[in-house]
Here is the input.
Amino acid sequence: MKIVVIDGQGGGLGKLLTARVKKELPQVEITAVGTNSIATAAMMKAGADRGATGENAAVVCCRDADIIVGPVGIVIADALLGEITPKIACAVGQAAAKRILIPLNLCDNRIVGAPEKPMSWFVDQAVAAIKAETDED
Here is the structure.
């Protein structure tokens, strides 16, 4: 099972996701894709198996992912303060992978109906969704 975690800015969400998924599902392969080197480094320190940075890395890694996980902004061009390029958003949206998107209400995007909860709550929900996807295989 190939999981791609995409994050930007400081990589805080990606770091939490990577650490929790590795703890709960140590057998899965996690590729950390940061929109910048700081985000990639944070996810690598959290236990990702491999990492890459930038637009082309995101496009290439989405091609053979089984699951792509990250903030909802990864499917919105110019999200994460402009770090998500149209090519990244398109690659994530068109990937054959299952997408697990975390509805953080940041960077001028508001998800109506998403509860105002701490990031750790959303990470718990995402890890549960990833576990459910891995159980189906």
User: Anything to note?
Assistant: The first strand starts at residue 2 and ends at 7. The beta strands are 2-7, 29-34, 50-53, 67-71, 98-102. The chain is about 45% helix and 20% strand.
